[in-house]
Design brief:
17 helices, 5-stranded antiparallel β-sheet, globular, 56% helix, 4-stranded mixed β-sheet, alpha+beta
């Protein structure tokens, strides 16, 4: 993994050069065919997006983390080809060679670190954006999962966020007048917290206490003696990827999703703290018991009381079928901006009506039925095409909504059916 600021900058430079070459070739091809292509169309070809995905995967760190967030949160708005390519970032990462891993562990644990273990598997069992996970057995026989951070991650956060923001601006995906500086500052702060494994360990212990009365889920136990700011040690919990439930009976799929949705509601309305990273890899399922293993608490953050109240008001309006109340609640909480309502009031109301109609249907909500999204996509894209109507919700809302949207995306993947009204109603009486 390239560590220094200059070496990482050179990687972005190589990426820019490669993408530019692809744009020239694609532009020449289209001109020869009589087309007059737009710059954005030349940049976001499947070939160029593939180059971006591969380079971010090689860089890892904040660069790859942001790419994962973009690919996941874009949801159904990206063309299918680009979504498939960007999805590589959720599933792949280069891992450290053994010599580099050795240097990191010597720095964190000292030169005699191997004496602490009966066995330490040098090949990682998982590799993600800012660290890789190894399986180990301590001298006293405890089986651990050891997450080791890639060198240079913390030092590269600021430059990586700025470089990815530059790529977004170049793509034309962001209007020129949109001020994303507050969001970039919040992203840098959040990523710096995720890179602090001692902080993540504290959040893991917090969730272990909060969920001690919830037999449906299990949280790893922190090994405080082996944990440092760059190495996180915890009990190893076996489990299968949650996506394996796709072929499970409906009852198992529905039960898993219902558990995760109850967890989101408790985080939002009871705990006042939420693990805001809904990456599917953060959930495992134990096939014998059906319990869900919860992993990765680096993105855990407090939920502001005003944000929780905003969601409560929005849910009340949604379940009552009151369009005016729903629009007012969305404006008050910052989900939508005044300019969108002023310039596209009819389209905003049409989107609200679609959502209210789905919520008013009797019986369980079928997350596998995505047909209603087509009715949202057209007015949504028309509003998004008007740069004067763009609006950035408060950062707290963005992080919470990311968790909610990611959970819904998993529910759709598993084709779950959930009685949302029965699930949500108790939390609206508080």
């Amino acid at each position: 993994m390239p560590r220094g600021r200059l070496s990482r900058l050179s990687q972005f430079g190589r990426l820019a050069g490669s993408v530019a070459g692809g744009m020239v070739a694609e532009g020449a091809r289209r001109l020869a065919e009589g087309e007059r292509p737009h710059l954005r169309d030349l940049l976001l070809t499947p070939s160029n997006v593939g180059k971006i995905a591969d380079r971010l995967s090689h860089l890892r760190g904040a660069a790859m983390k942001l790419g994962q967030i973009i690919s996941m949160d874009a949801g159904d708005l990206l063309p299918a080809e680009l979504t498939a390519i960007m999805a590589r970032l959720r599933d792949s990462a280069h891992h450290m060679p053994p010599a580099q891993l050795q240097k990191v562990l010597v720095r964190e644990w000292g030169p005699d670190w191997r004496t602490r273990f009966q066995r330490f598997d040098l090949h990682p069992i998982a590799a993600a954006s800012i660290g890789q996970v190894h399986r180990a057995v301590t001298r006293d026989g405890r089986e651990l999962a050891i997450k080791v951070q890639y060198p240079g991650v913390s030092e590269s956060i600021v430059s990586d966020v700025d470089n990815v923001a530059t790529l977004l601006k170049m793509s034309g995906a962001l209007p020129r007048g949109l001020d994303i500086a507050p969001l970039l500052a919040e992203a840098k702060r959040q990523l710096a917290e995720e890179a602090d494994y001692e902080r993540e360990g504290e959040q893991m212990m917090l969730f272990e206490r909060l969920l001690a009365d919830t037999p449906e889920v299990v949280v790893p136990t922190l090994d405080q003696q082996l944990t440092t700011s760059r190495v996180l040690a915890m009990t190893f919990l076996s489990g299968l990827p949650i996506e394996t439930l796709e072929t499970a009976p409906r009852a198992a799929r529905d039960a898993a999703v219902r558990t995760l949705m109850i967890l989101v509601l408790r985080e939002l309305f009871q705990f006042g703290v939420m693990q805001t990273d809904p990456n599917f890899a953060n959930y495992r399922v134990q096939p014998d018991s059906g319990r869900l293993v919860l992993l990765d608490f680096g993105a855990a953050r407090p939920v502001q009381p005003g944000t929780a109240m905003g969601y409560r008001q929005l849910l009340r309006a949604g379940l009552s079928g009151d369009r005016m109340a729903a629009r007012a609640a969305a404006l008050s909480a910052g989900f939508i901006g005044p300019a969108a309502v002023a310039r596209h009031g009819g389209r905003v109301d049409a989107m609200i009506d679609v959502i209210l109609g789905e919520l008013q249907r009797p019986g369980p909500f079928d997350f596998g039925d995505r047909r209603f999204l087509a009715a949202l996509r057209e007015p949504g894209l028309e509003i998004a095409a008007d740069s004067a109507a763009w609006h950035l919700p408060p950062s707290d809302v963005l992080f919470v909504q990311r968790k909610i949207s990611g959970t819904a995306l998993l529910a759709a993947r598993l084709k779950a059916r959930i009685d949302l009204r029965a699930l949500v109603q108790p939390w609206l009486q508080m």
